[in-house]
Amino acid sequence: MSNKKGFERNFWVAIIMEFFERGAYYGVLSVLSVYLVISGNEGGLGFSKAQAGTIMGTIQPLLYFLPIIAGGIADRYGYRRILFFAFTCITAGYLFTAITHSYIPVFASLLLMAVGAGFFKPVISGTIAKSTTEENSTLGFGIFYWSINLGAFLVPLILVPILKARGYNNIFYMAAAVGCILMLINTFIYREPKANVEIRKKLSENKDEKSVGKMVMGILGVLKDVKFITLIFLYSGFWILYFQMYGTVLWYLKEYVDMTPLNEAVNSFLSIFVSNPSWKFDTEHVTVINAGVIICLQLIVSRLVQKWPALPTMIMGIGCGTLGMFILSLGSTPWVFITGLMVFTLGEMTTHPKFLSYIGIIAPPDKKALYMGYSFLYGVIGSSIGSFLGAGLYVKIVEQMHQPQLLWLIFTGIGVLSIVGLLIYNKIVKR
User: Fold this and answer.
1) Which residue among 17, 120, 237, 422 sits deepest, i.e. has the most Cβ atoms within 10 Å of its Cβ?
2) Secondary structure letter of residue 307 according to DSSP
3) Euclidean distance between the first and the last CA atom of the chain, given in angstroms as a whole number
């Protein structure tokens, strides 16, 4: 069953699943680090920033590491089974987070959610790959990327403020309800990709095809590729900056940035259409800005840099992201804050597609899928270091020394180091 563009029904089912799951995830993530640290009187859990950094520094690396192994498991046991497992973990994880209030149970609940989300990611992207052809693959993955950002834009913009006003736990109940909806879609609408049936039949006939020994040798082969591992390590510097958007940036907004001028400007505009508007910029809108800029400008940026060489374009994008961090150090006015976020996002959308392209170039022809899987290590390194380092620096520099501008200058320095490292890398690789 297909439409005019030639997409199978399963393609659109996967797009809907991705929209719902990412919407729920980014809705939660847009407020999570703040919910963990604000006091019970404000509706939060009252954990320390170090404890919040430990949670964020554990669940986010897990989300990037699990897809490396989950794809092979899904090929062996079937996509629908793995999706059922993923949605069970996601639903239970969000639900338990909503009803628990002490550190260990909340940590365990979020870990359960991360396991589900980590297994969901490769299965749904694999479904897109197997539901498109060579002719419509580019368009298909473009729609897929948009569905991610559309969910990350709409849910924090519309649902999160309404739910948060009634209590933060309602955001987690919403995400758990989404998990139930996804379970129903998987049960009654989603179909196992046809290609998977043949793959599983082949695996059952040849048990050695995906043996543990062969998998370990494949992993060691990737880890011995010095050029690849060096690239991942250097690129991770940028992602240390990126993961501040879900930690230190939200704390800084809550504690240092007075958004009153922006709120007044927006409400003045809204008063043309409604009487007595009371819109307020809050932590969830950081995610809204990031996703909104991508939705509006990604196609333009992608076309602009399409024919540019991959590695120099990556370096330029990281430079743009680093500039965004530097802008945050220039002041705590809402205009400086939003400009910094938008410039950073421009850097993100410039560098990451080119990174994926470059991995495709340097990977051996017979190991491209393996290398693409292990390219997720940038997120493992960036999120683990970024969350722990960000929390530690925020406590030391912002809370104790009262110098938030120094925090952003330190992260700017990390971005500069990443740029310098990649410039040297580019020179060596060219030679």
Assistant:
1) 120
2) T
3) 51
